[in-house]
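Structure tokens please, single chain.
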Amino acid sequence: MAAPLLHAQIDINAPVEKVWALVADVRRMPQWSPQCRMMRTLGPVRQGARTVNVNRRGLLVWPTTSRITEFVPEKKLSFRVNENGTIWSYELEPTDSGTRLTETRHAENGVKPVSNMAVNRFMGGVPSFEQELVEGMNQSLARIKAAAES
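Here you go.
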């Protein structure tokens, strides 16, 4: 069963190339995301590259790995988290005043059962955790906007 599509969107008064430079530098993900503490690619950032990540929520810290599934300069960056099967994407679209940036979390085949079990046991349940993820997406986009517009 597919999990709900989680998404957030923001308009940024900066050109696409400036916003892309911030999004595509995955080492900066901890600056944007309230949950991500580290994201490193093994090799250059490109489609097919693998990443090693560390996330944190309160006292809980957990590692993940992912693979970049789409890397289209100035348009889209997506990666699939191996541990839960979710796909996170950043899509950029030029607007009259700059860039529209959309972040999504998609789980076409559902989130892996072991991940849902951990969320239910340690993170207050799937619905509240997903709401927290959307709040985090909005925070991430606001931080990217502030950096791009400064």
